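dude i think i finally got it to work??
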Amino acid sequence: MADLGKLTKRQREVYAFIRDKIRNRGYGPTVRDIGKEFDISSPNGVMCHLKALERKGLIHREEKKSRAITLTKEPLDRTHRALPLAGRIAAGVLHEAVEQKESIDFGDLFDADDHFVLEVHGDSMIEDQIADGDYVIIRKQDRAAQGQIVVALTDDHEATLKRWYNEGSRVRLQPANSSMAPIYVKNAKVLGVVAGVVRKMR
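look at this
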C-alpha cells in the first residue's frame, strides 16, 4: 500500500487526483489538468508537487510526455475483481472523451491493474464484430502495431475506437464499416489495445 503519511495535505490531494484518473479513466492527467483542478496558475507550482511525489516513490514520470504519469506503489488487491468502466467510446464520429465512475466485474479473465473497460457507442466497428452497446476490454499500452484495434486520443482530446495505421505524416483511424470513411489526424496517442469484447444478449 502506498504510504501517504509523509505527504502534505495538497500532495495527498494531487496524488488522489492522479490515482483516480489512472484507475477510472485509464490514463493520467496533464500538468494543465492538475493546475485547473487545484487552481494552481503556474505549471511550476504543479511540477513542485509532482517532483515531491516522485521523490517519495509514489509516481513515475516520463520526460517529454504530457500524460506519462504512472503509480509506482499501487496496492495489488486480488480480491478486487472489477475493472473500471472509464466511459463510453465513439465507434462512429469523434466525440469528446467523457469519464464515468463505475466498475464492470469480469472476474479473473483480465488483470485490473493493466486493463480497463469501455462501453461502445456507435457501429463503425461492426465488421470486426464490435457492436453498439458492447463492452471492450482494453489493455493499457501506448504503442500499437499497424492494423490493431485501439483506443486513440487526438490532440483535441477526442477519443475513438478504430484500427490504427501510422502513415508517417499522419495517422489513419480506420473504421470496420464499409459505409464509413477513415479519419485522418496529424497526431494521435494510443491509450490501449482491444484485448476482448463482451456482449450482453438483447
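Residues 174 and 182 are 5 Å apart (CA to CA).
im so relieved honestly
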